[in-house]
Specification:
Elements lengths: L3 E4 L2 E4 L4 E4 L2 E4 L2 E3 L8 E4 L4 E4 L1 E6 L12 H11 L1 E6 L10 H14 L3 E6 L13 H7 L3 E5 L6 H13 L4 E3 L4 H4 L4 E2 L2 H6 L3 E2 L1 H18 L3 E3 L5 H12 L4 E5 L1 H5 L21 H13 L4 E2 L8 H4 L16 H10 L6 H8 L1 H7 L14 E11 L18 E11 L2 E5 L8
Parallel strand pairs: 1-6, 2-7, 8-9, 9-10, 10-11, 11-12, 12-15, 13-14, 15-16, 16-17
Antiparallel strand pairs: 1-4, 2-3, 4-5, 7-18, 18-19, 19-20
Helix pairs in contact: 2-3, 4-7, 7-8, 8-10
Length: 429
């Protein structure tokens, strides 16, 4: 494999507190000291930001199963175009990723057809039914990096306690979708002013907050990691913040849509604004941003959830929850968080690199010599308009079509190989 030196970029590596213009060397797919690389190809990246490869902790690839909405190939193409080098694939496939066979299938297809690294997440319970613990030891041996029942939150508290205790044995973090299904039952949007005004069944903030509190208690009891997926309410953040101060191993992620949108959008009756957890109030949105600012939330994840146009083009009540996000996340976050001065670049990049790597406990998300050469290149000033018709994803269910952004991922490198580029100086291989 060729040797390369990336010159002139502003290099930001939050894991090592690096933020300066410097050269980065790559040899045989791993980072290397550029001073030792003789006769290396030089790539001029002056004016750009070079960061460790971005990691998305929350992606639905739909394969096996609903390949009309997404495949491992198209989903990873979308990830590369969005600046992500590694993605964690949720287990709500068909068949469910609750057994070594399905994990082997995902890893095999990812190896053959994936453009970026696919890190499988195993199911907490068999069939995501919340009744019986999946074979966690077998899932670990098959290569899962975490456990989750994703959109089907385990309601049995005793079972969840045992799962957390057992996952500690195998050093697997729990990624939990927090939702009391009784309180949230039948809801299609946030319970608040706009649900009353529109006459639509609301999903109470308390439905999320009750399970967040439960998970915090169980994480403390078990002495192990629980990661709260797509936190969306002010109350949830208060619970998480308090638990963290007490030393509980609890972390949280936010999505670009909960950072940038609120439930007022539902008055459009556009099903591309329907997701779970739902878009919340402006007070909740600002609380999520504050959670990012003060470090309560250490991860930004997309919750990329592809659905076909046919599935989404129905009455709001009957449409499935979820939107795609791999190809818009970085633009939205640079626009809404960096350019609006909520987060500086090192802090924002940390939510896509060090934060996810710490949750997984994996040696990724850094530019350290000897590590796999996964790189995301940013142009923080690049302006444009989101055009969903140009997405690599199979699906188009996004509320951000036509969104004006400032800041873009312009190059994605995986194991030293360029898999996506908008730069003439960076050749796609």
């Amino acid at each position: 494999m060729s040797k390369r030196i990336y010159k002139g970029a502003r290099v930001i590596d939050p894991a090592r507190n690096i933020d300066k213009v410097m050269d980065i060397g790559v040899e045989n797919g791993v980072f290397a000291d550029p001073a030792t690389l003789k006769d290396a190809e030089v790539v001029d990246l002056a004016g750009y930001v070079l960061a460790p490869g971005f990691i998305d902790l929350h992606v639905h690839l739909r394969q096996p199963g609903k390949t009309d909405a997404e495949t491992i190939h198209t989903g990873t193409l979308a990830a590369a175009a969005g600046g992500f080098t590694s993605i964690v694939a949720m287990p709500n496939t068909s068949p469910c990723a609750d057994n070594p066979g399905t994990i082997h299938y995902i890893r095999t297809y990812a190896q053959a057809e994936g453009v970026v690294k696919v890190l499988p997440c195993g199911a907490i319970t068999k069939g995501l039914e919340g009744q019986e613990m999946a074979g966690i030891g077998g899932l670990k041996a098959a290569g899962v990096v975490a456990l989750s029942d994703d959109g089907k939150c385990v309601q049995n508290h005793e079972l969840m306690r045992h799962v957390i205790e057992y996952s500690r044995t195998f050093k697997l973090p729990i990624l939990d979708h927090c939702e009391d299904t009784v309180l949230a039952s039948g809801g299609v949007m946030h319970e608040g002013h706009w649900s009353v005004f529109l006459g639509m069944k609301g999903m109470a903030a308390a439905a999320e907050e009750l399970i967040v509190a439960r998970d915090a208690i169980l994480a403390r009891t078990a002495g192990w990691k629980v990661h709260i997926q797509h936190v969306s309410t002010k109350g949830s953040l208060s619970i998480i913040r308090t638990a963290q101060k007490e030393g509980v191993q609890i972390t949280a992620e936010a999505t670009p849509h909960h950072i940038s949108l609120t439930d007022v959008e539902i008055k459009k009756f556009d099903t591309n604004y329907k997701m779970n957890p739902p878009l919340r109030s402006e007070e909740d949105r600002l609380a999520v941003i504050e959670g990012l600012r003060d470090g309560t939330i250490t991860v930004i994840a997309t919750d990329h959830a592809p659905h076909t146009n046919t599935a989404k083009t129905v009455e709001f009540d009957y449409a499935p929850f979820g939107i795609i996000g791999l190809e818009t996340a970085v633009q939205i976050c640079l626009t809404e968080l960096y350019h609006k001065q909520y987060l500086d670049l090192p802090a924002l990049i940390s939510k896509f690199t060090k934060g996810p790597a710490d949750v997984l406990g994996m040696p990724i998300g850094t530019l350290e010599n000897g590590r796999p050469a996964d790189i995301t290149i940013l142009d923080p000033e690049k302006e444009g308009v989101v055009d969903a018709d140009k997405f690599y994803s199979k699906s188009r269910n996004t509320p951000f079509n036509g969104y004006r952004y400032k800041g873009l991922a312009v190059g994605t490198i995986v194991d030293g190989k360029c898999v996506f580029s908008l730069l003439d100086s960076l050749k796609k291989e």
